[in-house]
Every structure is written in C-alpha cells, then in structure tokens.
Structure to design on (211 residues):
C-alpha cells in the first residue's frame, strides 16, 4: 500500500482528489493539509511514501515544503501540482528535490499512475511544462541580483533593501541597475514584472522547519 499525503488549500479540490485516489486499491490517503506548515507537520507524523503538494499554499509554498521533506524525510517522494506554473518554478522544484511536477488538469487516473512511478523510484515531469522551461531558458540574473529584485518586489525603498541585505545603497542600486539592463527593462519595476512572469523570482525564499 502506497501511503499518500495531500496538501492543497482548496478544500473542495483536495476532498475530491482524496476520494478519487481512495478508489485505487494500492493507494491510501493517510493525511490531508491546507497550508505548508500543516503539510510539514502531517508528514512528520504520518511518514507518507508520497506527498502531493499544491505549488501555491498559504504561509509556505509547496516547493518550500518539498525542500524540507527531502532533507528530513528522504524516503518521502514529493509531487508538485499546480494551476499557475512558470518555467522558473520547475527549475526551483527540481533543485529542491521534487520528483514529480504536473498541472492540476491531470486526470485522477494519470495522477495515480504518476504516484506509482515516483514510488518506484522514477521521476515524472509534465512534458508541456518541461518544454516551456526549456524554451524560456535559464535566468540571466546572478543569485544576488535575483535576491535584491525579490526584496524590491514588495515596494521597499533602496535604503530598506540595503538594510535588509546588509549592503550599501550604492551597491544595491548597482545590482538593481544591472538586473534591469539584463532583462532589457525600462526600470526596476518592469524588471520585477519580467522576472516574475518568467519564474526567475518568486518572492522571498521560505523554509519549513521539520525539527
């Protein structure tokens, strides 16, 4: 029996998915969660074989939870499902150790098949999402430029960004200017928009404590 954890903040979708997976003779939904921290707590308690995680959840997103599970519960394979995927999300997910990445349009039968694939030790990435990630290419931004664009994304001033990043205001301006030029944007606000649309920044990185 493959033990499955479901995490999605949309209760109707999560409930329907749980009911459909329960029809599979070899799958058992052992826990459900609606937020990232709740998913982490449920995983720690129930030790599922597979964690199916919504990409966008309150407090901590699915990739942050997957990253924590990969480190603390390596036997638990993670599968991200999403209705709002960007190319950068897939790359970030793979870096976090995610084994599967699919759109929410996947059928229950296919999802069950993918769960079995992951449980067997293989990986499954939706072909369309993989193709989009490849066509978009890698981010031209350095890690520092991406971090500072993330800090600027909430409307923070240069002084605030400098304080939060422990850099001088001049250094912050230089990094943001460099990022803007690389993205061929008119200003840093447009640069933030472009980077978000391509999935190259996604807000401040978050972690989940499973200790």
């Amino acid at each position: 029996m493959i033990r499955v954890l479901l995490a999605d903040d949309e209760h109707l979708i999560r409930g329907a998915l749980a009911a459909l997976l329960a029809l599979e003779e070899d799958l058992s939904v052992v826990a459900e969660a609606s937020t990232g921290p709740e998913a982490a707590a449920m995983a720690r308690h129930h030790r599922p074989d597979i964690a199916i995680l919504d990409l966008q959840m309150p407090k901590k997103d699915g990739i942050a939870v997957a990253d924590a599970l990969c480190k603390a519960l390596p036997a638990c394979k993670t599968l991200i499902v999403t209705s709002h995927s960007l190319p950068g999300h897939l790359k970030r997910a793979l870096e976090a150790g995610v084994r599967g990445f699919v759109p929410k349009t996947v059928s229950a039968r296919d999802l069950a098949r993918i769960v079995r694939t992951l449980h067997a030790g293989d990986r499954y990435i939706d072909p369309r999402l993989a193709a989009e990630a490849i066509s978009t290419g890698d981010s031209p931004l350095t890690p520092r430029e991406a971090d500072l664009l993330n800090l600027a994304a909430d409307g923070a001033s240069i002084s605030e960004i400098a304080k939060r990043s422990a850099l001088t205001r001049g250094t912050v301006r230089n990094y943001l200017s460099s990022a803007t030029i690389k993205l061929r944007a008119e200003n840093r606000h447009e640069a933030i928009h472009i980077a978000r649309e391509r999935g190259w920044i996604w807000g401040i990185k978050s972690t989940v404590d499973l200790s």
Summary: The chain has ten helices and six strands. The mean pLDDT is 90. The radius of gyration is 19 Å.
